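Amino acid chain
________________
===
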Amino acid sequence: MANINIDEAVLVEQWRRGDCAAMEALIIKYQDRIYNVILKMCANADDAAELTQDTFVKVIENIDRFESRSSFYTWAFRIAVNLTLNYCKRSVKLRHSSLDVGYDEQGQQAKQVLKRFLKDEASPDPAIVAQSKELCELVKMMLMKLDDAQRAVVILRDIEGMNYAQIAKVLNTELGTVKSRLSRARNNLRELMEAILQ
């Protein structure tokens, strides 16, 4: 198997020349991250697994069209996000569950932590707090309340750590649109969290 630490551009060129090990190395390198992004966007493990598979099928089918204007990583994420956004638009599944159901003691503790967090003006954005175990499930539920485009930009920026330029490439949109969409999404997240903590 090819070394996954080899430069992406080298692996892409080897893949284009028919090196299946190079293709495998790139898929292995990004499959978990792409799956996790898709899962955060669609909130269904089975759908996320299928969309991840669909993403790599499209990547394999279109590798000759990859023009290297962005990194392979950004290009593959763009395919994944576009497939997932299209899936979410078509989906007729009920994705929003009541936030009042299923809170146990840990959920109540998470609410208290969030209340303290929301009162502190210097605190980071709520999406960043998702790294805290107590808040993770609550933030996931709040993310699912956002519209698909806002959820995508929050996941790519605050969870995946992409910069604005990378997000603009992935979402095929203007840099200003990314910034304004992220600002609205963060405000909406804060309002949603404050509403359940009243």
About this structure: The CA atoms of residues 62 and 117 lie 45 Å apart. The first helix runs from residue 8 to 16. Residues 105-196 form a domain with the Arc Repressor Mutant, subunit A fold (CATH 1.10.10.10). The chain is about 70% helix and 0% strand.
